[in-house]
Amino acid sequence: MLAAGNLTELLTEWRQGDQAALNRLAPLVYDELRRIAHRYVQRERNGHTLGTTALVHEAYLRLAGQKKIEWQNRAHFFAVTAQVMRHILIDHARRRHYAKHGGDMQRVSLAEAGLMSRERARELVELDSALDELAKIDLRKSRVVELRYFGGLGLEETADVLQISVMTVRRDWRAAKAWLYRRMRAE
């Protein structure tokens, strides 16, 4: 796990326009991003088209392109990373889900076809919608799910990012899962 001070310092230098800081930052955050992505990808079927490396690279490219974010610290960086990974995964699921209806048709190899099941794609799109709904009711619980499920963070890491206790994260996680289960079963 990389030191919070080093990361915060590099994020500040990068925000101030120092491109060399981004070059020093990349190798430091790559392993952490890979660990977070791996946690998510582990939940997917074998052969899922969006693997750990692809998810990390896409997230890194999107983060590196962010010039307007006022990076505050390590926790803020990884909270934004979790959001970026969520959007990447949901976009991927939406493309897969809509493709079954003929939208966004493109040629793919036979090996690529069907790696993300239509059912799984539909579930991720529904989960995204339910999380948006939950955020309107209780933003913190929605953020806990986002950080834990899409960001792959543990209880302690989530508590650190949100600056709340581990017990609060645990309670919010349980309550949010129950709410999401009821909401998704209703559909």
3D architecture notes:
The protein is mostly helical and 187 residues long. 73% of the residues lie in helices and 0% in strands. It has helices at residues 4-15, 19-42, 52-64, 74-99, 118-137, 139-150, 155-162, 166-186. The protein starts with a helix and ends with a helix.
Summarize the structure.
The chain has 187 residues and is mainly alpha-helical. The chain has eight helices and no strands.
Secondary-structure blueprint of this entry?
Elements: H1 4-15, H2 19-42, H3 52-64, H4 74-99, H5 118-137, H6 139-150, H7 155-162, H8 166-186
Q: Descriptors for this entry?
A:
single chain, 187 residues, mainly alpha, 8 helices, 73% helix, 0% strand, globular
Number of helices: 8
- CA-atom Rg in angstroms: 17 Å
* Cα shape: globular
Q: How would a crystallographer describe the biggest sheet?
A: none
Helix content: over 70%
Percent strand: under 5%
Classify the secondary structure makeup into a structural class: mainly alpha
Low-confidence stretches: 103-115
Measured distance between first and last alpha carbons: 40 Å
H/E series: HHHHHHHH
What average pLDDT do the residues reach?
A: 77
